[in-house]
Amino acid sequence: MTLSPKDIGLCSLFSVVLPLGQILFKLGADYDKQLTGPFLIRVAQNYPLIGAFAWYGLTALLWFYVLTRVPLSLAYGFSLVGACLVPLAGWLVFKEPAHWTMAVGYLLMLAGLFLIVRPA
Question: pTM value?
Answer without folding.
Answer: 0.81
